[in-house]
């Protein structure tokens, strides 16, 4: 700090500061100061120079530099927000048993196995790298875990010793091809923040902090969005200079991105964590905890209407949140779609006029594309809304995230 300085210079500004600056001429012209052979002319010229260099230049430089910095911050925050969106909307691997590895050298590689629902089923630590170098023993431990829990995916954190751990898993796959494993290196940014958080302590009160990190690494491969919402957005690592911009504006922008992503994907009411539910439009931490408590006490939700039985879940909250909450295999097939309960009468009208069952209507692309949306509009639901409803019926519960694909790297190339 204080070593580098930035200055604003005009293209035609003279190098020698003793020469007249172009802006001094502008000041002189404005006040009609010119050399007329008077005794005070030299003094007036000095006043013009002083006015520009002492008063106007410093003020303009400050104003322009502030404006440039604000524009730069806005652009940087926009880039950070885009980076976060890409991370949150990364392709989920799905409900598949996963082995999470948090690499390390001296402290060992922390291992956590989670089942298809993300539940921790077993954990341990292995020491394949220096100084212990228990390579063969570590391979045996991993093979046993994968066989016991029918693991399909191996999620490797990209921190210290990631490359060495990746080679370990590659050898595991070569030595035990029948396991049918797929290995993926994932970003472990924010895993340590989550593992030391109050949320992680509530979920795993008796678990070591390092193992919690391995659980997070495994889960973020299964469903990046559901896991990353547990971490403060700024801790996920969205940009190199994120600490140099306005933290208030950055937080506001990143929080909005998280909420947009959660609402765009939708949330399964019967499996979502409190942290994920709290990001749904209209909900907060208290309401999210109340939903989870109701679910634990009364079992799975059978319909969206059951939400109104949750403590402090009022009509306005239902109006804001219901469209983003999904009930899979519930009493009403529309509850698993993005169609808001207020719009159910439109769907029922379509079914009645076409003499079709509701279940048969959903997903019938040929029939739905033949409909004229204007035939089902009224004072409440306009043409754009009805068009969106028909589009959602065509592909109910569609996920905006891409399909999961694992890249295959040629062994031996480093």
Order of helices and strands: HHEEEHEHEHHHHHEHHHEHHHH
Distance between the termini: 39 Å
Average residue pLDDT: 92
CATH architecture annotation of the largest domain: Orthogonal Bundle
Helix content: 40-55%
User: Remind me, CATH topology of the largest domain?
Assistant: DNA polymerase, domain 1
Please tally the helical runs, counting DSSP H or I stretches of 4 or more residues: 16
Within CATH, the superfamily of the largest domain carries the name Tex RuvX-like domain-like
- The CATH class of the largest domain, by name, is Mainly Alpha
Major beta sheet, specifics? 5 strands, mixed
The helix/strand class is alpha/beta
Domain module tally: 3
Strand-residue proportion: 5-15%
Uncertain runs: none
Describe this structure in words.
- The strands form 2 sheets. The chain has a 5-stranded mixed sheet with strand order 3-2-1-4-5, sandwiched between helices.
- The chain has 3 domains: 22-88; 98-222, 2-Layer Sandwich (Nucleotidyltransferase, domain 5), CATH 3.30.420.140; 266-394, DNA polymerase, domain 1.
- By secondary structure, it is α/β, with parallel strands linked by helices.
- The chain is 46% helix and 8% strand.
- Pfam families: HHH_3, HHH_9, Tex_central_region, Tex_YqgF.
Briefly say what this structure is:
With 414 residues, the chain is α/β, with parallel strands linked by helices.
Which terms would index this structure?
3 domains; five-stranded mixed sheet; two-stranded parallel sheet; mRNA binding; HHH_9; 7 strands; DNA polymerase, domain 1; 414 residues; 46% helix; Nucleotidyltransferase, domain 5; alpha/beta; flat
């Amino acid at each position: 700090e204080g070593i580098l300085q930035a200055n604003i210079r005009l293209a035609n500004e003279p190098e020698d500061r003793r020469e007249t600056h172009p802006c001094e001429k502008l000041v002189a012209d404005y006040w009609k100061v010119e050399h007329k052979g008077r005794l005070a002319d030299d003094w007036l010229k000095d006043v013009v120079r002083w006015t520009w260099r002492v008063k106007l230049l410093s003020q303009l430089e400050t104003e322009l530099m502030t404006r440039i910095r604000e524009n730069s911050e806005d652009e940087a925050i926009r880039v950070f927000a885009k980076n976060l969106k890409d991370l949150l909307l990364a392709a989920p691997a799905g409900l598949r048993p996963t082995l999470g590895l948090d690499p390390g050298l001296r402290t060992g590689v922390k291992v956590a196995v989670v089942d298809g629902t993300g539940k921790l089923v077993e954990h341990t630590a292995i020491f394949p790298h220096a100084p212990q170098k228990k390579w063969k023993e570590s391979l045996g431990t991993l093979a046993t875990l994968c066989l016991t829990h029918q693991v399909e995916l191996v999620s490797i954190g990209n921190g210290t010793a990631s490359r060495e751990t990746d080679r370990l898993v590659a050898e595991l796959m070569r030595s035990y091809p029948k396991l049918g494993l797929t290995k993926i290196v994932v970003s472990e940014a924010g895993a340590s923040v989550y593992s030391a958080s109050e949320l992680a302590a509530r979920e795993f009160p008796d678990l070591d902090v390092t193992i919690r990190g391995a659980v997070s690494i495994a889960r973020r491969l299964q469903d990046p969005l559901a896991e990353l919402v547990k971490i403060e957005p700024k801790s996920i690592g969205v940009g190199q200079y994120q600490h140099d911009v306005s933290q208030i504006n950055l937080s506001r922008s990143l929080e909005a991105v998280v909420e947009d992503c959660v609402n765009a994907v939708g949330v399964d009411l019967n499996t979502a964590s409190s942290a994920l539910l709290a990001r749904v439009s209209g909900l907060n931490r208290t309401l999210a905890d109340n939903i989870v408590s109701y679910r634990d006490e009364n079992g799975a939700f059978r319909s969206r209407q059951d939400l109104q039985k949750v403590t402090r879940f009022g009509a306005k909250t239902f109006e804001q949140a219901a469209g983003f909450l999904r009930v899979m295999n519930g009493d009403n097939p529309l509850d698993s779609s993005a169609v808001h309960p207020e719009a159910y009468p439109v769907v029922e009208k379509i079914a009645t006029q076409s003499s079709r069952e509701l279940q048969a209507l959903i997903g019938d692309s040929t029939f739905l594309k033949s409909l004229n949306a204007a035939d089902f509009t009224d004072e409440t639901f306009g043409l754009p809304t009805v068009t969106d409803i028909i589009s959602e019926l065509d592909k109910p519960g569609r996920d905006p995230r891409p399909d999961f694909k694992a890249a295959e790297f040629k062994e031996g190339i480093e």
